[in-house]
Amino acid sequence: MKRVLGIETSCDETAAAVVRGRRVESDVVHSQVALHAPYGGVVPELASRDHLRNIRPVIEAALSRAGCSLADIDGIAVTCRPGLSGALLVGMQTAQGLAWAAHKPIVGVDHLIGHLLAVFLEFDTAQAQSPEFPFIGLLASGGHSALYKVSGPLASNIEELGATRDDAAGEAFDKVAKLLGLGYPGGPIIDKLAAQGDPEKVILSKPMPQKSALEFSFSGLKTNVLRWVTKHGRPGDDQTLRDLCASFQRRVVDALLDKALIAAKQADIGRLVIAGGVAANRELRTRGAERAAAQGLEFIIPPFRACTDNAAMIAYAGAMRLERGEDDSGRLEMSPHTLLPTVTRKGRGRRPAPGTQSSSA
Ligand code: KG4
Ligand code: ZN
Q1: Which domains does the chain show, CATH number per domain?
Q2: pLDDT 10s digits, 67-117
Q3: What 3-state DSSP class applies to 205?
Q4: Ligand 2 centroid to 202 CA: how many Å?
Q5: Average pLDDT of the chain?
Q6: Atom of ligand 1 nearest to the CA of 142
Q7: Angstrom distance (rounded) from CA 126 to CA 122
């Protein structure tokens, strides 16, 4: 069982972790939330600079909390895609320097694969569940929202079934929170307010209701909230605000679950795993458990800290490659795009099947 140092800097979290097998020995996350909050979103240049400032203390803390030094590590895993180029490079350069100096193998990890495998992590506080392959992975984060058939831990085992045509689910939470003047990131704030609201009081449109398409679209819902605010005015800190948040959240949660449940049925897979920052949403967790049970599905929810960005999931995904003797030393490449083939094109829906011509393309 390999002991792996994971490093993650793809967006606005500087993170490092030591994982042995499934066991998380340390998990350090330095969040840049306060830095980006005044702008209502991540500012790439500020993110890179802050990663540079924090990467060294974060890695040192991860090693010391795990009670080990670089010499005790079997390999290094670092996020190399998708993400902000400048931010990714900070983690990758650091990881490569450490691997070279300590004579350790290094592997690049796709951030989305990290999210999809986060459910396997064993933290101190939580009893880990271990789903068996294959499962349907519903990944909903600030940058991505997609459904996957996950048949194993490697990129070649993961197939995208459908993704969002426009905004990611977390992005929709963040944008709606911004237009309601609630602060950043919007997901946890709306989650809290929605818990005290009535989702039936404010009527909002249903995103992508077409039953068969496994794609999402959240920009219409966002515009719907904007129109509501233009017509009725921005609610103050009152019950109307809570009802509006509850209605918006219910729409997002049901859109995600509707499609995930259809995907499980279509693929004839009995397990559904949720992943990514939006998987921390309490309504998605409880409603998902109810709706999956009603369809006879096993519903597997990672612990809260495994949902949002962290380096333990990167270490675990990297360990799957290191265990097979893989090593990217000298040929690690950064990319803003995921390695996983995509079937949905942002703004244009589903890609035509190979060999066919799409009239809209
Ligand atoms: O996975 P993540 O930490 O970073 C990305 O890879 O994007 O996800 C961050 C996203 C943000 O958009 C944030 O608003 C959302 O996850 N989020 C939530 C909750 N906690 C975080 N959305 C809904 N409910 C939450 N409790
Ligand atoms: Zn993420």
Answers
A1: 3-124+307-322 (3.30.420.40), 135-301 (3.30.420.40)
A2: 999 999 999 999 999 999 999 999 999 999 999 999 999 999 999 999 999
A3: coil
A4: 31
A5: 93
A6: 7
A7: 7
